[in-house]
UniProtKB/TrEMBL annotation:
Residue ranges annotated for the Expansin-like EG45 domain, each copy included: 115-221
SUPFAM superfamilies according to UniProt: Barwin-like endoglucanases, PHL pollen allergen
Expansin-like CBD domain residues: 234-315
InterPro entries in the cross-refs: Expan_Lol_pI, Expansin/allergen_DPBB_dom, Expansin_CBD, Expansin_CBD_sf, LolPI, RlpA-like_DPBB, RlpA-like_sf
Pfam families (alphabetical): DPBB_1, Expansin_C
Similarity comment: Belongs to the expansin family. Expansin B subfamily.
Any single GO CC term annotated in Swiss-Prot or TrEMBL for this entry: extracellular region
Name by which UniProt lists this protein: Uncharacterized protein
Main location: secreted
Length: 319
């Protein structure tokens, strides 16, 4: 969802001064003009009034447009329509230019439900620890960017520390403000600040940042599967999370008990993959995941015969 929701942008409009008062003409000794002159005068007045009305309409339209944009900026969710270009303020070839905003609670994880368009849950808790971000399409990648990790830093604002912080893509930004747009949690945005200046940086609303892709690292974690609500003997949906390295998954395959072959699952949304079967599925299930680099891992019989929806199943595999 967006431009920094905590802080409205301010729009400054130059005041429009009304012209000096016009004195009314003295008609007491005036002669009546010819009809043709009256017609010309009448026509000229109408044209002048029309032009004035058109100009006034344009001014009103501009003011209304600015007001609507201001409201969208202030109250949007994980996204706000705009057409900015991130300024390239670094010559470091390892970093790219982007813009950052934030949304949700100032010290929160972003979404009110601590989830997001990737399907991850409880992103306010470790190992995500609220260091999360919405990504626009080049980062979110129709869900295949879910779980990828980036270092971000800011340098231009006085409150910026310049130190890199790592964030994880957990949500989708539908209306970016630049080619690369990180709509961060309040926690992640404030983490880029100098000590004690987190709120000052958040008050900036939208800032230029630098970013680069980095390997994900979940110490002590193994690849984990969450069987989604609604799964049943002929429909199976699973969330994949906590992958080191690329951090993302571009394909998931499932093998039923004693079948001996892999069946491709379909991406449902975000990092959730599903299988719509034409028969009763036979557990336990093995799952094979493929990351963006093409590396495959197999979690043998990771989903037990007595599996149940809305449960986590931790594997013993990791990239």
């Amino acid at each position: 969802m967006s431009i920094a929701r905590g802080l409205p942008w301010r729009f400054f409009f130059r005041s429009i001064n009304t012209p000096a008062s016009c004195s009314l003409p003295d008609h007491r000794n005036a002669k009546t003009p010819p009809v043709s002159q009256i017609n010309r005068s009448y026509y000229t007045s109408r044209v002048t009034l029309a032009a004035m009305a058109s100009s006034f309409s344009k001014v009103v339209a501009a003011l209304i447009g600015a007001l609507i944009f201001s409201l969208l900026v202030t109250y949007g969710s994980c996204a706000t329509p705009a057409n900015f270009t991130a300024s390239d303020f670094t010559a470091d070839p390892n970093w790219e230019a982007a813009r950052a905003t934030w949304y949700g609670a100032p010290t929160g994880a972003g979404p009110d439900d601590n989830g997001g368009a990737c399907g991850f849950k409880n992103v306010n808790l470790p190992p995500f620890s609220a260091m999360t971000s919405c990504g626009n399409q080049p980062l979110f990648k129709d869900g295949k960017g879910c779980g990828s990790c980036y270092q971000i830093r800011c340098q231009k604002h006085p409150a910026c520390s310049g130190n890199p912080e790592t964030v994880i893509i957990t949500d989708m930004n539908y209306y970016p403000v630049s080619k690369y747009h990180f709509d961060l949690s309040g926690t992640a945005f404030g983490a880029m600040a100098k000590p004690g200046r987190n709120n000052e940086l958040r008050h900036a609303g939208i800032i230029d940042i630098q970013f680069k892709r980095v390997p994900c690292n979940y110490p002590g974690q193994k690849v984990t599967f969450h069987v989604e609500e609604g799964s049943n003997p002929v429909y199976f949906a699973v969330l994949v999370e906590f992958e080191d390295g690329d951090g993302d998954v571009v394909q998931v395959d499932i093998m039923e008990a004693n079948s001996g072959y892999w069946t491709p699952m379909r991406e449902s949304w975000g990092s959730i993959w599903r299988l719509d079967a034409n028969h009763r599925l036979q557990a336990p299930f093995s799952l094979r995941i493929t990351n963006e680099s093409g590396r495959k891992l197999v979690a043998n019989r990771v989903i037990p015969a007595n599996w149940a929806p809305n449960n986590y199943y931790r594997s013993i595999i990791q990239y």
